[in-house]
Amino acid sequence: MTRKPRDYDAELQTLMDRAKKLKSQKTTQLGELVQVTGADALPIEGLAGALLAAVEQSKKNPEVVARWTERGQALFQNGAKRGSKASSTNAAAGAASNGSEPAASGSGA
Questions:
Q1: Rounded to an integer, what distance in angstroms lies between the CA atom of residue 87 and that of residue 89?
Q2: Alpha-carbon distance 91 to 96, whole Å?
Q3: What sign for the dihedral angle of Cα 96, 77, 104, 58?
Q4: Beta-carbon contacts of residue 50 (< 8 Å; ≥ 6 apart)
Q5: What is the pLDDT along the chain (109 residues), one digit of tens a residue?
Q6: Neighbour-count burial for 21-40, b at 16+ CB within 10 Å, e otherwise
Q7: What is the pTM of this model?
């Protein structure tokens, strides 16, 4: 018996579509995180500056990330008690916990 040939182009296209969908979901979740934290009230330049400062600070002082993480976890736990926003907030936390969560909390620290 002969084997059925694989369609590498179709498999590659499927993988590319999946990667594009995941990137879109991450972008949406990051936007939701900005809204939930109230950072959307900042001017875009101010938000960008705060995020850049948070990244720089996390490189110089890694223990600050632990404090930001605690604040972020508290935000999500309190959000779960409030109700409907919690599901989208928790989804945002899953995708964005490495970058945006500490930065959003760090802008006030």
A1: 5
A2: 9
A3: negative
A4: 39, 42, 103, 106, 107
A5: 778 888 999 999 999 999 999 999 999 999 999 999 999 999 999 999 999 999 999 999 989 999 999 999 999 898 766 544 444 444 444 434 444 444 444 444 4
A6: eeeeebeebbebbbebbebe
A7: 0.59
